[in-house]
Predict the 3D structure of the following.
Amino acid sequence: MKLNRLFAGIAATAVAAASLAAVASANEAFLMYTDDSWAWGVWNAAEFPAGTTDVNGDGTYTVFVDNTVPTALVTDEETGDTVPAVANGAMVFCVDIDGLADEYGFQTAGVDGMDTAADKRARCNEAGVTVSDVKVTTYNTDGTSTDIAVDQSKVLYGDIEGNGKLRIEIQNEYGDSVKDPCIDKSTISFDEKIAVTFTISGLKSDAADAPAVTADAPAAGDVAAATDSSKGSPDTGIEDVAVIAGLAVLAGGAALVAGKRK
């Protein structure tokens, strides 16, 4: 039996699966939002994990905040019931994607000349990463929804905070976007949910980064011979078959873990 080739093939598969687990990481994105009255408020991903998403390559993604956030609920003075507060406007309205600036080399901390958000967007673009087709939609408990007009040319993004994240700044009273906003925040009014959909390109995908298996894989005949106990062998017995099966399970398990998040 050609067990050497069989073990080489299985070992290569296990190494490839372990390598895939290393590259198949994603960058968490969340919607940072508070309305003009500071009633609705989400400031980090941990505060509202239901509205986050994993950015794991080029594509279109959606993040949101809804009225299950505790600060979005108020007490009806007449009935005493807990009801959703109506959110109006946007004091801070950004999407943060963890780690992208560090990963793709457009971080701005300590970089001279990164004075404005427009400069930081340019640095992001120079690294090959672009954000486009930003869409803002609000939803109400009466079943209605509204698409908020977005001037795509005015959307700011990049390592705006100098913290290694990619921020999409739609509206921020304390940022550059307040000078020339991409939305009219007075058109925002809702009591159920606000969502942002965006397209990002220039990222590596997990599939593209997966290493190729270059070691010789065992031929089908070798596998059959190694696992057919009726043929017997002076060199190996059932223990070898058990080891082979164990390695195969480990390799498959590594690949399965690599494909999972959370």
Summary: Residues 1-24, 207-262 have pLDDT under 50 and may be disordered. Helices lie at 3-23, 100-104, 117-126, 206-209, 220-227, 238-258. The CA atoms of residues 29 and 67 lie 19 Å apart.
